[in-house]
Design brief:
It is flat and about 70 Å long. The C terminus is likely disordered. The protein has a domain of 147 residues. It is 70% helix and 0% strand. The chain is built from 18 helices and no strands. α4 runs parallel beside α6, α9 runs antiparallel to α10 and α13 packs parallel to α15.
């Protein structure tokens, strides 16, 4: 993994979740092509980032039975890559251990940056492996050996601090059922950004990590059923500031799709039906274009088959869509981990 900003390895975990929901669904109407495509995309990401998720063998077994397995995906590939991942983690642990045992003072900036580059790769491995405690331990040990200023005086010091990057890595490794820890991480990142805003560049990595934290926090608001807060922040990010929208389109397409669907659901809860077309809200049609850009996407189905019919009081059409097992199963598979309650409870 290079120092270039790239968080798409996170979608290995989402695709693994989606695949599991598909194959465990009671609906028999889910197209096999959707399941196969999800499995293949998940393996493609594993291949790209050279990190193996625990579901890899299951994906290969499924694709093999469906006669969709590519020749370069095999159990041998899984075993060799997993061995490489575990070896890398062991090297990272040993390197930090040596620094902790031998250094009487904080690491020099250049050495700290090289070490953090290794830690970032190790953290990506632990996230995909779902070994979150290992990732948090690596981060905590890294913090113990570097000199970090809460108020850097120069842009170079801000970049070398990696404060926002570390907050992001911590946030993605926390899996506690309590939202308190995640809220604290978000508050600390926000406070650090506000104190040092003049040092942040528009497109530098620390700024991108900051937006990533804010956007993933949007999902967290929805999961806590803080619908009004989610709605207001979404509008602020995408229709007023607009920087986050450009960031999502360029760097986190899958998260964009999730947030659009969540926003659609939130708008149905909060707004009169005649506002569900979003035309009054979005005078430039930028948001509507995102909903309708990909006809096979979940956000397109939600907008055209639920929101627009509700706006026109075509309630029978809405009922038909919400009773469509394929639609509900896809909604659950792609989004349920972001929902306050399981989707089956909501519709039945």
């Amino acid at each position: 993994m290079t120092d270039a900003f790239d968080l798409n390895y996170l979608f290995i975990n989402q695709l693994a979740f989606t695949f599991n929901k598909y194959i465990s669904s009671s609906s028999s109407n889910i197209p096999k092509s959707s399941i196969s495509n999800t499995a293949k995309q998940c393996l493609d990401y594993m291949k790209q980032y050279e990190i193996i998720h625990p579901i890899a063998e299951t994906l290969i077994d499924y694709l093999s039975k469906e006669d969709r397995l590519q020749s370069d995906y095999s159990t041998q590939w899984i075993e060799s890559t997993r061995l490489m991942n575990n070896s890398y983690l062991e090297q990272a642990r040993e390197e930090i251990k040596q620094v902790l045992e031998t250094s009487m003072q904080s690491l020099h900036t250049n050495k700290a940056e090289k070490l953090f580059s290794k830690i970032r790769r190790a953290i990506a491995i632990t996230i995909v492996q779902t070994s979150y405690e290992v990732g948090l331990s690596l981060l905590n040990n890294y913090v113990a050996v570097v000199d970090i200023s809460t108020q850097p005086k120069t842009k170079e010091q801000l970049v070398s601090n990696k404060t926002i990057s570390r907050k992001y890595e911590t946030k993605t490794n926390v899996t506690s059922n309590s939202f308190k820890t995640l809220d604290q991480i978000y508050s600390k990142a926000l406070n650090y950004y506000q104190k040092n805003e003049l040092l942040f560049g528009q497109y530098d990595n620390e700024t991108r990590y900051f937006w990533a934290i804010k956007l993933f926090n949007l999902s967290l608001l929805f999961k806590q059923f803080k619908l009004c807060e989610f709605y207001d922040q979404f509008i602020g990010f995408f229709l007023i500031e607009k920087e986050p929208l450009n960031f999502l389109v360029d760097d986190l397409q899958m998260l964009l799709s999730n947030l659009l669907v969540i926003f659609g659901i939130t708008t149905i809860f909060l707004k009169p039906f005649n506002e569900l077309t979003l035309m009054k809200l979005d005078k430039d049609d930028a948001l509507i274009d995102l909903f309708t850009d990909v006809p096979e996407s979940l956000e397109f189905q939600l907008y055209n088959s639920v929101m627009i019919p509700l706006a026109k009081c075509q309630f029978k059409q809405v009922i038909v869509q919400l009773q469509n097992e394929t639609f509900v199963a896809e909604l659950a598979a792609q989004l349920e981990y972001n929902l306050p309650v399981p989707l089956e409870i909501q519709w039945h």
